[in-house]
């Protein structure tokens, strides 16, 4: 008889799904649009920090952190595409 995990046990963390939950939202868009010109804003900062923590945890072994790197790339791609769409919707071509 196979043992089952308790129903209240936390699911294993999936970096790609964690980033998908932090997609471009109204709050993120508002923060970006209302920031000062010289202020840096990265909506994928959480994914970047997870990648760095993975590297530290694994002694710099990049092969152990490929899922985290891919999650960061996916987040950045979503962010860039959302910004392009927002500019198109506003009629800005640059």
From TrEMBL:
Subcellular location: Mitochondrion intermembrane space
A GO-annotated cellular component: mitochondrial intermembrane space
BP terms from Gene Ontology: mitochondrial respiratory chain complex assembly
Major location (coarse): mitochondrion
Keywords: Disulfide bond, Mitochondrion
Annotated region described as Disordered, given as residue ranges: 1-25
Low complexity bias: start-end ranges: 1-20
PROSITE patterns: CHCH (PS51808)
Chain's role: Required for the assembly of cytochrome c oxidase.
Protein name: Cytochrome c oxidase-assembly factor COX23, mitochondrial
């Amino acid at each position: 008889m196979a043992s089952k995990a308790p129903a209240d046990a936390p699911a294993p963390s999936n970096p790609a799904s964690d980033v998908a939950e932090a997609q471009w939202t109204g709050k993120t868009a508002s923060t970006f649009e209302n920031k000062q010109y010289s202020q840096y804003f990265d909506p994928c900062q959480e994914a970047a920090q997870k990648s760095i923590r993975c590297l530290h945890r694994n002694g710099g072994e990049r092969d152990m952190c490929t899922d985290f790197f891919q999650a960061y790339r996916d987040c950045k791609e979503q962010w860039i595409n959302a910004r392009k769409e927002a500019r198109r919707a506003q009629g800005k071509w640059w």
